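ok new one. same drill as before - structure tokens go in, u give me an amino acid for every spot. 209 of them this time. try not to just spam alanines like last time pls lmao
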């Protein structure tokens, strides 16, 4: 049976005296894909930032492999790959340099080969050493997404991964999500796009009235 990865119990968060979500409960195990849906401003990014350990604006419990996040924050962050909805890169650096930083921050060995492969996988072969400010919005997004392929993780948390991505790229990302889940990864994501993946998809709707 799949090990319970992430468990959220009775999560509550508010912003400016407005409740974003309350009594939110779910589990996310190996192979699961969970979409957080809801209208603009309903709290999707807020929830993902909480689960990525970037915000403490919540009440309730978050468990990773049955232990509270506080007890094993370092281990959790090492197993987690969070891609926020911003570009998430340094514009003055090249894709290669950006990813070297990301890998170094994760304590991965300095080796350009997996980084170059990751950049090729996201369609950036030939752009490895060009400053990111000279890349298009979609290409910059792809630099950030390349982290999916050079940083090992058990859990992907992806905030609007399809932003600025062309139609073919959208289908590719859907395939990456399916592949990651098929190999035992767990994925939590937000998107306004109707996901087409060959895995069972669970959806939690925030801001339901
Ligand atoms: N930095 C901030 N300061 C003050 N309020 C904020 C901040 N970030 C978000 N909020 C508020 O929190 C609420 C939830 O925002 P959040 O970004 O989580 O929504 P969302 O569901 O991700 O929206 P979208 O679909 O537009 O990305 C909104 O009402 C927003 O105004």
């Amino acid at each position: 049976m799949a090990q319970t990865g992430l468990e959220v119990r009775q999560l509550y968060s508010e912003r400016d005296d407005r409740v974003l979500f309350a009594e939110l409960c779910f589990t996310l195990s190996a192979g699961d894909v969970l979409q957080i849906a809801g209208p603009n401003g309903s709290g999707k990014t807020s929830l993902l930032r909480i689960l990525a350990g970037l915000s403490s604006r919540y009440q309730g419990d978050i468990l990773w492999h049955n232990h509270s996040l506080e007890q094993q924050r370092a281990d959790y962050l090492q197993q987690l790959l969070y891609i926020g909805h911003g570009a998430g890169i340094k514009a003055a650096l090249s894709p290669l340099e950006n990813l070297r930083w990301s890998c170094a921050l994760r304590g991965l060995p300095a080796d350009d080969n997996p980084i170059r492969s990751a950049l090729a996988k996201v369609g950036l072969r030939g752009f490895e050493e060009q400053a990111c400010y000279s890349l298009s919005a979609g290409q910059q997004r792809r630099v950030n997404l390349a982290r999916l392929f050079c940083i090992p993780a058990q859990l992907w948390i992806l905030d609007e991964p399809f932003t600025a991505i062309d139609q073919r790229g959208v289908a590719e990302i859907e395939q990456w999500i399916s592949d990651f889940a098929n190999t035992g990864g767990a994925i939590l994501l937000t998107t306004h796009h109707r996901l087409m993946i060959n895995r069972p998809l669970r959806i939690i709707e925030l801001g339901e009235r």
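Strands lie at 4-15, 18-29, 33-37, 59-64, 67-68, 80-83, 155-159, 186-190, 201-205. and btw Residues 15, 20, 38, 40-46 surround adenosine-5'-triphosphate (CB under 6 Å).
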